[in-house]
What we know:
The chain is mainly α.
Amino acid sequence: MDALLIVIIVAAIAGLACWALSLITRDTSWVDRAWSIVPVVYVWILVGGAFAAGDGSARVVLMGVLATLWGVRLTFNFARKGGYTGMEDYRWAILRKRMKPWQFQVFNVLFIIGYQMTLLVLITLPAAVAAQNPSGLTGWDALFAAAFLGFLVGETVADQQQWRFHQRKKDAGGTLAPGFATDGLFRYSRHPNFFFEQAQWWAFYAIGATAAVAGGAGILGGALNPTIIGPALLTVLFIGSTIFTESITAGKYPAYAEYRRTTSMLVPWPPRARAAVTSA
């Protein structure tokens, strides 16, 4: 059986399982729990398919290793925050209150389950491109793999800084000015972990594109190939999610308005000058 077809079947089963569990438990965070796991499974299915077809290469193995490192790190971070103990994402609870029950269930099927589970397949498809274009590693592969690892380290640092802030906040009784992290990488981006998460999958796409170019596809169809839809839609998802998350944060913390004015939303960038304070 074709490896991509196996991926689609596994994804369909995973999506149906997440939907059923969301109805049984009234908890819509099952996709969140699968987020860092199923892409790793998909990539290794594609790697195994490549070798089964006689098209295995060091490049597809490299992509499998990179995806695994991403998955292990993200799973660890999600687990330590209580993600696997039945804790639902607070944003879904807010949306549930804003919608009628039937509207939320439609949103659950089409977006929480449908869009996100499809997206988790799409971001892994550059591995299929690499499997279809077996060739030796190049300097471009080394560059993009190094970029992936750099982004992985960046996200690790950002998540650790955020974790330490929330631990200090917890130790302080739940209140710690200004209410959100602003030090370290958060001085340069309001969501550095979100930026690095997306950047890793753009680097992953670039490795697949390198394979296509090495296979003679050229710019169109090679450097720019249909699997770009994966990281592109991931970026769309993160931008939308960030806007919604920030609307909640801004309502809780008055200081967030100034932080938002002075600090880049995603791309790390030197902060703008703070507004001058005038006195009567």
